[in-house]
Amino acid sequence: MNPEIFHSVLLDEEKCKGCTHCIRRCPTEAIRVKRGKARIDEERCIDCGECIRTCPNHAKYGQTDSLELLKNFRYTIAMPAPAFYAQFKGNLSLAKILGGLLKLGFDEVFEVAWGAEILADEIDRFLKKPNLALPVISSACPAVVRLVEVQFPSLIDNLLPLDSPLGLSAKIARKQAMAKGYTPEEIGVFFITPCPAKVMEVRRSRGLMERIDGAISMSSIYSRLVIDLDSLPEALDFQLACWKGIGWARSGGEQESLGEGKYMAVDGIHNVISVFEKIEMGELKKVIYCEAQACVGGCIGGVFAVQNPFIAKVSINHLIKKYTCSRPPEDNEIKEWRKEAVFQRVNPYEVRDVMKLDDDYRKAIEKYQQIEKFLEKLPALDCGACGCPTCRTLAEDVVRGKAQEIDCPFLLREKLCEISKEIFELANRVPQTMSEEGGKKKIESQ
């Protein structure tokens, strides 16, 4: 494994049975089955969690952090995702949920939903700029961002250059804690995550001001709080989010926070791919902003969620109606954050050339022709028996030197038939020193 690349989605080989469920659902074709076990290509993986959902043997899982990490810091801040609220019944107050986080040992709570509200105003401001690459694609979902980097490099310029709600919230939370007298090293910022993609984003955060020190799954936090909800204290001082940020938990919430406009929302990674293909073909130039989320239903459909996403959506809609009053930051704070580039993305987007056949253009053309020629031999069934998701991916792997032609069971069968035919012909071949009649008698006697 490349030490520079971190992925939250991991494989438990002991549980893997070598089935083909995961290779069929992986949106970037990052999984192969070799020698009866799945293998994840870390260069192609976008941590969307589709393989975790589909694996019947629970061989895929998302790596997260433990509450034990809180002991490493003098002052700790919990940052719950908006989707975290949807795990509880809609009649439970947000102040009580946030109070539960304090009961678990956190010193402060900063709502990512409030960060989303602040970011929404900046996005609206950005979209008024001229000469934008349209549609502008949201940077809120790290799996979608990496999908663009890996599979749609032509859309890099379409990605919103502003930070995600998570990244922005971490910066503001750390600034506020420093204003209380704590040093950056003493402050521990922890995100309560709905999915493995955001764990990836957390692990790739850099710098003292931008760093997020851990990502803890919503399911693990929920299991600790749900035991005795009635005894949870209320943290009224920390509850700032309203409908505008809470709605980001579900698909369409980000779009709604921007108000009226030529905006669209798409959820589900395969649906996102379909829309991005349309954008590449220039069919959606009239759309100004595209909210795209890897999970069906948005973050409430994340693999670390406990609640059924459809029930969670009902809870979110209830909270949206309940929390209508906004408490935005002061104008001077906004101006200061703009001056310090708090809203800007720290890590630039990078094109990942994992789909490129060769750096040399001519060799790439030759390999493409080899792939097309080999495809003519294949049955075009996409059965997955070779360990690749499709016949085309097998052809690509063969040309790249990562697979053999006879990995296809149909080609293997043809090869065995040819070999058996040759063996039969050789068995009937009469040596030059023997007459045909004598040779036949010898074969018959055998």
Descriptive notes:
The chain has 446 residues and is an alpha/beta fold. It is 40% helix and 10% strand. It has helices spanning 21-25, 50-54, 82-85, 94-103, 112-126, 142-151, 165-179, 196-203, 218-225, 243-246, 253-257, 269-280, 309-322, 331-339, 361-375, 391-400, 409-427, 436-445, and strands at 9-11, 31-34, 37-40, 60-62, 75-80, 108-109, 136-137, 187-193, 214-217, 263-267, 289-293. The strands form 4 sheets. Strands 6-5-8-9 form a 4-stranded parallel beta sheet, sandwiched between helices. Strands 7-11-10 form a 3-stranded parallel beta sheet, covered by helices on one side. The termini are far apart.
Structural class: alpha/beta
Write down the overall geometry: elongated
The N- and C-terminal alpha carbons lie at a distance of 56 Å
Number of strands: 11
**Arithmetic mean pLDDT:** 92
Our estimate of the beta-strand percent is: 5-15%
Number of separate structural domains: 3
User: How much helix, percentage-wise, in residues?
Assistant: 25-40%
Number of helices: 18
Strand order of the largest sheet: 6-5-8-9
Give a quick account of the main beta sheet: strands, pairing sense, barrel closure. 4 strands, parallel
